[in-house]
Design goal:
Elements: H1 2-19, H2 23-29, H3 35-68, H4 74-106, H5 112-149, H6 167-170, H7 172-183, H8 187-197, H9 215-257
Helix pairs in contact: 3-4, 4-5, 5-9, 7-8, 7-9
Length: 269
């Protein structure tokens, strides 16, 4: 009976050795918690870039088909061929941003704490900000073509729904700064900072094919391109805020580990 019990208890190990031939166990035992995570992180961002590319291209093609099947004018359809080609091309620099930033993150050599709480966060802030800037730029170009053709051309906004899971990272700097300023009873400054980072110029309207250009529409077109610069400025502001908060917390953590009070004890005559 004891031999039967022992056979039952050894059954999982026997199956593991027979099926996996111990290769999986060897890989787990040799897994490097630093280099391994970096390698897999690079691979994940590469896969994400491919998925984003496919998602963007399919979404743009579907939107273009719906537009060309609508009751738009012939001039609008001609202009929409240009905007469709531009939007199809825009997916490639967007996916290149995701891939290159992910590879840079995978090649970083900071410790695990810095890798997770600094490199990972700042990389995703850069990705979201740069993707938004590229999407805004191509949207502004499409809006400029709509102005020239004086028609509502196809200009589907560049959607990156696959990045929605990373969107929370971009809000970390302002949320952390707001929490710090509110704790110091500086709610007014927190409100000003939040309003600055969320501001953008108006850059949308409908065109009625009357072929009449005016300065107001031209200013709206210019506003679309200015929004690109505003988005990049907000990106660098968020990076500066997060680096400041991270360095402050890191410095405080080091002080907790080895506390000291910088008071001179030198005897004075």
């Amino acid at each position: 009976m004891k031999k039967i019990y022992q056979t039952i208890l050894d059954f999982p190990q026997m199956v593991n050795q027979k099926i996996f031939n111990s290769q999986l166990n060897t890989a787990v035992d040799n897994f490097d918690s630093q280099n391994g995570i970096r390698c897999y992180t690079k691979f994940i961002y590469q896969i994400l870039s491919i998925l984003v590319l496919i998602s963007l291209e399919v979404g743009i093609i579907r939107g273009a088909i719906d537009y060309f099947n609508s009751d738009s004018s012939m001039l609008g359809k001609v202009g929409s061929i240009l905007t469709t080609l531009l939007l199809l091309y825009s997916a490639f620099p967007i996916t290149q941003i995701i891939r290159s930033r992910g590879e840079s993150l995978g090649n970083s050599h900071n410790g695990m704490v810095g890798f997770i709480f600094k490199d990972f966060v700042t990389t995703n802030i850069k990705i979201l900000g740069e993707v938004l800037a590229v999407g805004t730029f191509f949207g502004a170009v499409c809006f400029g073509l709509s102005f020239l053709f004086d028609n509502d051309l196809f200009g589907t906004a560049v959607s990156t729904s696959l990045l929605g899971g990373l969107a929370w990272v971009s809000s970390l700097p302002m949320e952390g700064l707001n929490a710090l300023l509110n704790a110091l009873n500086l709610e007014y400054i927190a409100g000003v900072m939040q309003s600055i980072t969320s501001s953008h110029l108006e850059s949308s309207r409908s065109f009625n094919n009357d072929m009449s250009w005016n300065y107001h529409d031209l200013l709206l077109v210019a506003g679309g391109f200015i929004n690109v610069m505003i988005g990049l400025a907000v990106l660098y502001v968020n990076l500066a805020i997060y680096n400041f908060l991270y360095n402050m917390i890191a410095t405080f953590s080091k002080w907790i580990q080895n506390p000291f009070i910088p008071i001179s004890t030198k005897n004075r005559s």
